[in-house]
Amino acid sequence: MFFFISKIISFLFTPVIWVFALLLLAFFLNNAKTKKKVLLWAIALFYFFSNSFVLEEINRVWEIPAMKYKDLKTYDAGIVLGGILNYDVKFDRIQFDRGADRLFQAVELYKTGSIKKIFFIGGSGSIEFANIKEGLIVRRYLLTLGIPDKDIWIENESRNTRENAVNAEQFLRQHEFTGGKFLLVTSGMHMRRALACFKAVGIEADPYSVDRNANSERRFTLDHMFVPDVHTLWLWNALIHEWIGIVTYKIQGYA
Fold it and tell me: Which domains does the chain have, with CATH numbers?
């Protein structure tokens, strides 16, 4: 039930939905003065939530910073969180999303010896395609890259960050590996909630933020500071989802 409710809340707390609702309201209003105010609010919200500079500055505060290579230790496993792909059943083909940076960077960490195993955690976060398990797809992909099966750990039932942590702890306990040194690999925007969830179940891990929205250097170009960007609207959805998620998880005692 919590999984389905979280999907509904994420939909309602979406800037595009707010802008659309205001435009729809303005369409049905008869009072010209009120209609104008509502339209102005819609335009203001659209401009604010499509401004790349504003979002980047907020993410600069929210995101867990990246770790430099020189600061890396040698870890027993890199815990890689799912939510990184779609699967084309007809063509039997993986379609990676932006979050696939989590997996790609984990492969690099493995190849350079920073992590001894890749522990991928992820089932299906989709209501519509609940039978497509990310973990199984990722295992097959990693094997094609030449990574030995013994160095691939997969958990393929978890649907959200809470379940990621709980199932990871169960997996490590079953394999008598709870005392290992772990590197948690996920998107910078998602890292705060992920770290809190894993700590709540007793897994201590160092953060390795990837797929970050806050660049290392600030950009003061005209397009970045003033020109609306549609992709930024989508990134706001993800950020608001994280804020709602971490508040909800803290209330539930999950983080």
Answer: 2-63+224-252 (no CATH), 69-210 (3.40.50.620)
